[in-house]
Every structure is written in C-alpha cells, then in structure tokens.
Design a protein that fits this description.
two-stranded parallel sheet; 2 domains; 2 strands
Length: 633
C-alpha cells in the first residue's frame, strides 16, 4: 500500500502546484503592466512556497491511512466478530479513511485562505492596485475552491480504490456516516459558490478596469474579458462534475451487481460487495453483505437440514410402511386369536355340558353302586344261609347212614335248596357283570374327561396370561380323571377276581346239583354216595367260606367305590363351579379380543395416515430441495 500513499502525496502536491500556478496567473494578469515580472515573482515566491508546503504538511499524516499496518488489521478482522475491541478498531479505521476526502477539501480551502490573505496583504509587492484587491481575492478564492473540489474528487476515488483492493466485506451495523448526502450537498454547493465568486470577481474586475459604474456596463466589449475567462471555468466545472459522476456510478454498480445476483435465477450467496466508501453506500453494502452472509449460513443449514430431512423422510416412509405391514400382521394374528378364543369359549361350553353329563353319570353310578351294595348284602346273607345249609347237609349226611329215607327226602330238599342257591349265585353273576359294565362306563368317562382336560390345557396355553387360571382348573380335572381311571382299573381287576370266584361257586353249585341228582337216582348205592356227598359237603363248606370271604371283600370294595363316587360327585360340583368361572373368563377374553380387533383397526387406520403423511413429507422435501438448489453456498 506504499504506492497508494505515494500517489496520494503526489496527487495533493500536483493540486497545490496547479492552484498556485492559477493564482499566480490571475495575480499577474490583474497586476500593473508596468510592474516588472521579476518583482511579481519575488513578491509571490514566499506564498507560492508556503502554500504547497503547508498543504502537504497538513495532509501528510493522513497519508499514513494508506499504510499496510492500519489496513492489515482491518483485513484480519473476521466477519461478524464478537470482539468488541476489534470491532471498535475496525470502525475507527473505516471512519478515518472515509473522512479523508472531506479533510482534503477543508485543508485545501483553509490553506488557500491563508495564501490569499498573504497576497492581499502584499499587493503592493506584486503590482496589484488597491482597487483590484477585491476582484483578485474573489477570483483567486474561486480558483482555490475549484482546485480543492478537484482534490476532493481525486482523494475520494483513491479511497474507493483502496477499499476495493482490500476486498472488505464487513461493515459495522452501528456505523452511520451520511457522507453521500454531504457529498451530494458539498459538490453542487461548492460549484455554485465557485461560479458565483468567479462571476462576481470578473464583474467587479471589469467594472474597475472600464472605470464605469456597474449599472453602465452594457457594452459587449466590456464583457468580452469576462466571457473569455468564464468559458474555461465552466469547462473545468463540467469536468469536475463528470469525474464525480463516474466515481459515484462505480460505487453504485457494485451494489446493483450484487442485487442482480441475489434476484437472478441462480443466486450465488458466496459473492460479496467490496466496501468502496464510508457513507450511505458503505452502510448499504455492509448490510447487504451481512444479509447475504446470514442468508448463506441459513441456506447452508437449510440444505444440511434438507438432506437430514430427506433421509428422515425416507426412513419415516419405510418405517410407516413397515408399521402398516406389522399392524396388518398383528391384526391378522389378533383375528386368529379371536377365532381361537371363540372356539375356546365354545369348547368350554361343550366341556361344561360334558361335565354336567359326567355328573349325571356319576350320580347314576352312585345309585348303581348303592344297588350293588344292597345286592351284595343280599348275596352275603344268601351265602351265609348256604353255609348253614351245607352244615345242615353235613349233619344230614351223618344221619343218612341210619336214615336212608330221611336222606332221600333231605336230598330232594337239598336239591331244591341247591337250585335256589344256584339262582342266587346266578343273580350275583349278573350283578357282577353290571358292576363290570358300570366300571367300564366310569373308565370311559375318566378317559373322555382326561382328553377334555388336555384340550382345555392346550387352549389355555394359547390364551396366554388370560388362560392361566383355566389351565390350573384343566390340570385339576386331568388329575381327577387320572385318579378315576386308576380306581376304575383297580375295581375292574377286583371285580374280575370276584367274577372268577363266583364262577367257582357256580361250578360248585352245579356239581352239588348233579350230586344231588345222582343221590336221587342212585339211592341204592348209599354208602358210596354218602361218602362222596360227605366229601362234596366238605368241599362246599370250604368253597362257601371262600365265597363268604369274597363277598366280604366285595362289600369293602363296594364301600370304597361308594365313597369314591361321593368324592367324585363333590369334585364334579367343584369342577362345575370352576367351569362356570371359566365360561365367564372365556366370555371376557372374547370380549377383550373384540375390543383389541377394533383397536387394531383404528391403529391400522392411523398407520395408513402416517404413511400418507410420510409421502406428503417427501413431496415437501422435494419442493424444499428445488428451492434450495436455486442458491449457491
């Protein structure tokens, strides 16, 4: 940046030299023609030297603003920094450099006034009469102001180029400098004042030279000199206005280019406006850059968020579809469970009916067992009677040795009694068969009950937690059925044993009957028959004792069967109570499953809506992507 510092000093020096030369020419032109040129030069040498020297001395400290040290610090401050000290330094340096053109204009005017006062006080030395002092002062002041305005334009252009070279894009938000307004005011006002002073100076000069009052200066010749001097002045003012316009237009062009970029179809948010002035345009440029930077950051976040949102939208769509499928599967599973619960409820109802039927059969079995017990009591009494008869037969056989006739009669009576005994035994055989049939029915019922309990346990397992209580009841039913089956097998074995014993009694009875028949047919062979009869009676007595023991055992078994039947009846009542509860639980389970089916239908509807919303979200993400792609960040 040393070259810009040098350019600034040289530019200001040239302006001072130009101003001095113009003032010298005006002074020489308005001086006495008889005054030697050397005297005029000697009279102006001091002010001509002091004028550039004082101007350069006053502006030299300002040249340091173009040094690397100040603007390197500016360049290193990041955009949007939160460091208060750096922000203050940045703002201070911007204000200093931005105020330089006005300082140049003011210093030039002040130094020009000092220069003109020195000439005014030394007018005799330069050959200017007292009458021409006022037009001299006016003309020289207008010339000095023109050169000062020209220096202002040049320094303003140099400042703008300096800002541009640093590519500064940050502008403090609290920095408000109305220099553009001042510029738009100072330059026209300066031109107006310069023109007025120049025209006034020429008019007064013409009046003094012609020796006429101002009101009498109507001759065209009197204005010839004024017109000749006014034309170049106007040309110079026009050149000054054009230079100012060109400089201002370049500042507006950078702002307009950025605004066109932001309003174009492909908006590049990475571009920034180079800060070229510290005035309203600088404020606008800084705010536009700040807006663009914020928009860039926001759009970058939007694009990043859009990618995340797009991925989330895809995942949401997939999850929503998976949820719909899962809900459909769950709904299907619940529908199956509902059907199974319905089947279970029907099975429970059927099981309850079967258990009621079992209860009726158990009651019938209990009644049959009661009849069986009575029959056994009767059989026992008959057997005891038969034993007594056999004893009587034994006595009779002993007496038969002496009384054959009595034997014959006794044989006949014994035959009758034997027939009656055979009939009783046959009844016992029939009752035994009834007991066996009843026991088979009990075994069949126990097997069916066990099968029903297993089915109930399986259905309870399908029901899960809701069927746990039913599973316990089913297990108790199964145990009771197994116990019933076991007792039925034991009763069956004992009844078969009794049946075998009764078969023996039947055989013995038949043998006795045949013996009595032989006795009746062969009365003659008395001794042999008596001996055989005696042996037969002893055998019968032994068999009768065995039958009597068997009947006693049968009575005990019948008592145990009766007791077991009563226990089964009580267990059946408890089972019926539990089945009633199970029916109630099954109905509640079925009702709950109906509510679950309804709820899953609502969930499925909600899942379908979520899937639809996910699709809509994808469309929105695509629209956001289309808009975000219109910005380059």
């Amino acid at each position: 940046m040393n070259n810009k510092k040098t350019v600034f000093i040289l530019t200001m020096g040239i302006c001072c030299v130009l101003s001095s030369a113009l003032i010298f020419l005006i002074t020489f032109f308005m001086g006495d023609l008889d005054t030697p040129l050397g005297q005029t030069i000697l009279g102006l040498v001091l002010p001509l030297v002091l004028y550039p020297a004082l101007t350069i001395a006053a502006l030299f400290p300002k040249a340091s603003l173009f040094g690397d040290q100040n603007f390197t610090a500016l360049k290193k401050i990041p955009s949007g920094t939160n460091n208060k000290a750096d922000n203050e330094s940045y703002k201070k340096n911007l204000k200093k450099l931005g105020s330089l053109p006005l300082a140049v204009f003011g210093i030039n005017i002040l130094v020009s006034l000092v220069f003109l006062l020195i000439i005014y006080s030394r007018h005799d030395a330069v050959g200017v009469s007292t009458a021409l002092l006022n037009p001299l002062f006016l003309l020289c002041l207008s010339t000095a102001m023109f050169v000062s305005a020209f220096a202002y334009v040049l320094s303003d252009s140099l400042v703008s180029k300096t800002f541009s070279s640093y590519n500064l894009i940050s502008y403090p938000r609290d920095l408000r400098e109305g220099r553009m307004s001042v510029k738009m005011l100072i330059i026209p006002m300066a031109i107006l004042v310069i023109a007025l002073l120049f025209e006034l100076g020429l008019t007064v000069y013409s009046a003094v030279v012609s020796g006429k009052p101002m009101t009498e200066m109507n001759d065209a010749a009197d204005w010839t000199v004024s017109l000749i001097l006014t034309v170049p002045f106007v040309v110079g003012v026009a050149a000054l206005a054009l230079a100012l316009k060109k400089n201002t237009a370049s500042l507006f062009a950078s702002v307009i280019a950025q605004l066109e970029n932001l309003s174009s179809e492909k908006r590049d948010l990475t571009r920034r406006i180079s800060i070229c002035s510290v005035d309203e345009l600088g404020t606008i440029s800084g705010m536009v850059n700040s807006f663009t930077e914020n928009m860039e950051n926001g759009m970058r976040e939007i694009k990043n968020g859009q990618h995340s949102l797009s991925a989330s939208g895809v995942e949401l769509g997939q999850n929503a579809q998976s949820m719909v499928e899962s809900v459909a599967r769950i709904q299907g599973g619940i529908e199956q469970v509902r059907e199974k619960a319905d089947r279970q409820m029907r099975s429970v109802s059927e099981s309850s009916s079967a258990i009621q039927e079992i209860a009726k059969n158990i009651e019938s079995l209990d009644s049959s067992i009661s009849h069986q017990t009575e029959s056994m009591n009767q059989a026992s009494a008959a057997v005891e009677e038969m034993v007594g008869n056999i004893k009587s037969i034994g006595s009779m056989v002993e007496k038969m040795q002496g009384q054959f006739g009595t034997v014959n009669t006794a044989a006949v009576e014994g035959g009758k009694i034997q027939q009656e005994s055979a009939a009783k035994v046959q009844e016992i055989v029939q009752e035994s068969q009834s007991l066996l049939e009843a026991n088979k029915i009990i075994a069949t019922i126990a097997a069916q009950t066990n099968l029903l309990a297993m089915n109930a346990a399986i259905e309870a397992a399908h029901a899960g937690e809701a069927g746990r209580g039913f599973a316990v009841v089913a297990d108790e039913i199964r145990k009771l059925a197994e116990n019933s089956a076991h007792e039925s097998q034991r009763i069956s074995a004992e009844l078969k044993q009794i049946s075998g014993t009764i078969d023996g009694i039947v055989k013995g009875t038949r043998a006795s009957e045949e013996a009595f028949t032989v006795v009746a047919e062969r009365v003659g062979d008395t001794e042999t028959l008596i001996y055989e009869v005696s042996n037969a009676v002893r055998e019968q007595q032994t068999g009768a004792d065995q039958v009597l023991g068997a009947l006693k055992t049968m009575k005990d078994i019948s008592y145990e069967v009766s007791t077991g039947s009563k226990e089964m009846n009580e267990g059946n009542a408890s089972m019926l109570s539990e089945m009633t509860k199970l029916q109630s639980d099954s109905r509640e389970i079925f009702s709950g499953m109906e509510e679950m089916v309804t709820g899953m239908a609502d969930i499925n509807s909600g899942a379908q809506k979520v899937s639809t919303l996910a699709e809509g979200n994808q469309e929105t993400v695509k629209a956001i992507t289309l808009v975000a792609d219109g910005f380059e960040v």
